[in-house]
Write a structure and sequence with these properties.
The protein is α+β, with helices and mostly antiparallel strands. It has one domain. 23% of the residues lie in helices and 40% in strands. The chain is built from three helices and 13 strands, in the order E-H-E-E-H-E-E-E-E-E-E-H-E-E-E-E. Strands 1, 4, 7, 8, 9, 10, 11, 12 and 13 form a nine-stranded mixed sheet that branches. Strands 2-3 form a two-stranded antiparallel ribbon. A hairpin with a 2-residue loop joins strand 10 and strand 11. The relative contact order is 0.22.
Length: 141
């Protein structure tokens, strides 16, 4: 997975927080902020339907945003993923998150942040060279 810069990861978190509500993720709001919906094609050039909404930017260092389809359980938030910047690593990403959002503790390697009414949870990817940040707006319980 290509490395994502901390700055572009922060921008993706902001965009996801803007687009996420208790009802789900507003894909149009992400597209308005410059994200483009990804598609998949077979070797024959036919479009393959995806179970996920995947969005990216044609910009070096930009992460990928994924969400379930509207109305699905996975459609209630964004998952931002990318490779870790070799110069700053996961610690650099956490420092950037702490500089931009309110730290809200950590548990079992998951680092939590508040972004207004949204919650972002950052963790290393399973391979150690990537990250994932989940952005949700829990709404009223």
């Amino acid at each position: 997975m290509p490395p994502a810069t901390p700055e572009l990861a922060i921008a993706a978190v902001r965009d996801c927080a803007h687009a996420t509500s208790p009802q789900g993720v507003d894909e149009a709001a992400l597209i308005q902020r410059g994200w483009e919906r990804a598609t998949a094609e077979s070797a024959e050039g036919e479009t393959i339907p995806l179970d996920l909404i995947m969005l990216g930017k044609d910009q070096p260092g930009s992460p990928l945003i994924m969400s379930g389809k509207p109305g699905s359980e996975g459609g209630r938030g964004c998952v931002i993923t990318g490779g870790l910047d070799p110069a700053t690593g996961f610690d650099g990403l956490l420092a950037a998150l702490s500089d931009n959002f309110q730290a809200a503790g950590n548990r079992d390697g998951n680092h939590q942040f508040r972004i207004g009414s949204d919650v972002a949870v950052a963790a290393r990817g399973g391979d150690g060279g990537s990250f994932r940040i989940v952005v949700l707006e829990p709404g009223e319980g």
